[in-house]
Amino acid sequence: MATARVLVLSSTDAGTTRSREGATGPATGPAHDAGGAAQDFGTAADAVARAWSAAEPHAVVTRRTLDVHDPVLRAALRAAEPPTEVVAATSSGAAGRAVLDAVRDGARRVVVPLADVTTHDGGHGFLTALLGDAPADERAPADEPVPADALVRAARAALRGVDLVALVHDDLPLLGLHGATATRADRGQDVGGDPQQVERSLSALADDLARGVHDVAGDLLAGSDARSTFRRLTSTPGAGDGGGLGFGMLVAGGRLVDAARWAGAATDLDAAISGVDLVVVVREVLDGTALHGGEVPDAVRRAGPLGVPVVVLAADVRVGRRETGAAGLAGAYALEDSDAHVRRIARTWTPAR
């Protein structure tokens, strides 16, 4: 009998527990962790892979993580060319300090997952932290606000020659009815004050910083109009992710990329999928958002042209067969505590070879 091959993917939210207690600073391993994170990677997906193998011993079941915090992936990224550092931080300011630490250690590409960030400041803390490497004559007195053009100039000077990459998990713009503040408020998340007042403050901050970008760096894409720079930066998909840290990283000269696509490219996911008969994605939640962005549609996009079916197992399934079918999934199942449940799914979906 020929061997069936199954690929079990863990997404960035699958079975992952992260402690955000402790001092900031470099984490053990190749990446800098400004949150002192202690992480347990892909636990749920590991259990699924074991149960699948037990149910179908003739199948070759391979595990692959798409979590950029995974230490094996971090090590591979650091050994790549150019050496790539992944930093983790729960606040905008901590992200800026972690990026500076990575650059001081010689990194020429620094990656910041925006999903880790819980603050909501439009990236102001990030940009202010980058003043740590600004020449003394470019710093404002401690009791005075730093002019926007000085923030932009200092940030871009500190990151000159560095490829700054923000991993976007939510393609929100910064402002508006579907922007960072409105979306967080709708989800019941804290935005640091009255949502309307916070939105006005973010808009004013963004206007100042966009003018700074225009004055300091120019804006060939948007022409000579500073207002066009404002519109381009604030409306870029992902500018509102991480409480607006995406916007702050754009101001600093960084680029925003889809987190799932970046992780897939970093782990050579296309090659992995091309050699299997079935892809199983393990997630914490499968809802409408997960169907339209992230690891699930990315797996479907890669597997579909090869005729490889994609099945999702999630602790919480909030969509029905119509939605999952329209999204290109072959099936979706709610994870139960019993291994027997996974074994039944394995017997249903493992190809007979």
Summarize the structure.
By secondary structure, the chain is of the alpha/beta class. Helix content is 42%, strand content 17%. It is elongated, with a radius of gyration of 22 Å.
Task: Provide a descriptive summary of the structure in words.
With 353 residues, the protein is α/β, with parallel strands linked by helices. The protein has a domain at 72-260: Glycerate kinase, domain 2. It is 42% helix and 17% strand. The chain is built from 15 helices and 12 strands. It has helices at 43-55, 71-79, 92-104, 124-129, 148-158, 180-186, 195-217, 226-235, 241-251, 259-266, 269-274, 288-292, 295-303, 321-326, 339-349; strands spanning 5-10, 17-19, 32-33, 38-40, 60-65, 84-88, 109-113, 163-168, 255-258, 278-286, 310-317, 331-334. A 5-stranded parallel sheet has the order 5-1-10-11-12. Strands 3-6-7-8-9 form a 5-stranded parallel sheet. A two-stranded antiparallel ribbon has the order 2-4. Strand 6 (84-88), helix 3 and strand 7 form a beta-alpha-beta unit. Helix 7 (195-217) packs across helix 8 (226-235). It is elongated, with a radius of gyration of 22 Å. The chain starts with a strand and ends with a helix. 48% of the residues are buried. Keywords: Kinase, Transferase. One of its GO terms (molecular function) is glycerate kinase activity. It comes from Sediminihabitans luteus.
